[in-house]
Amino acid sequence: MKNKKLVMMSGGLCLLFALFLGCGERSGEKEYSKAMDSWRSGDLVRARTLLEKSIRKLSGNEKKSEAYNQLGIILWQLQESDASIEAFGKSCGLTDEMSGANLNLGLALFQAGRTDEAEVALNNVLGAEPGNATARATIGLIEMRKKNWSKAAQETTAAVRTQPRDPAGQNALALAELHANRNTEAAIARLKQILSANPGYAPAAYNLAVVYDQWLGNKSAAQGWYNQYIQKAGTDGSHVKAAQSAIARLAGNAPAIRPSTNPDDAARYIAEGTTLHTAKKYSEAVAQYEKAIQADPSQKNAYYNMGLSYYELKKYPDAARACQDALKLDPGFANARYMLALAYVQQRSWADAEREAKTLGKTDTARAEGLLKYISDIRKR
Description:
Helices cover 72% and strands 0% of the residues. By secondary structure, the chain is mainly alpha-helical. The chain is globular and about 80 Å long. The two termini are 31 Å apart. Residues 1-16, 20-25 and 254-259 have low confidence and may be disordered.
């Protein structure tokens, strides 16, 4: 299975915070008005101070909710993400309006990596406003992080229907469908359509390069698209260095850059994941194994354990991919081979299941024979 390090560059799907209408001129509203003037002029520190003073004076939950929402936006701009999330949460708690405040809260939680909490807030938005494209698209990105590609494609498709001309949404959909369906031709066609309609949209050029590079092994096409990405993104592009490194690697001038590893962190995440798996909190366990892999991609047990959790979640294609990744690191990993065969059985991919069982027989004859018998019996049902 090819290494699919596609970059989700969401463009317009970033923090599009929802603003509320301003207040009047009663107690606390004068400070609110001044805070908004300071915010518009770029004086975030003064705006924050005035908003906090306004909140102390304002009466009425709706007005305080508006002020807390604006405070959350300013705190996010000041890069105080935890305080921002707290302010958005207070805004949500003070109003029955379920879209604006919850949308901001969900987006902030997502950007902070707190995806489970983000999903709750964003689903609150969709409960009140089912057609909210930003909430739908962000849930799609959350599903991508979970590697739940079918759900990601479903959510992103719904978002794109609402905003069909949004290049970021189309870009996200191309990646989600690629992972869900493994159809590189369709992904390439969609990414090229994005560039045809939006010639300056650099993320699509980068993802085209990655598809050609890491899915198809087409060096010349990959180099061309990496170069196009650099031209479109300019010096400020978030993946310029990665593109330059890839160009050098493909030209044979430099080895692939390997990320730094932290085995101790990986071991801790694996242990936490195992505890969660034992408690039958399989989705949470998967998230910990993901962290372990990010800390040290050479940890075969992180992939294998992730496969076990995916299997319990009945996400059999994901379970198979995780076991395949473990076997790439250690082809003799008998437990991973066994689970890969079982994942194929659940998908009724009989030939694949039998192939893996026979391969297992080279190192574990007894278990392989039992597995082949199990496959034979279940095929007859």
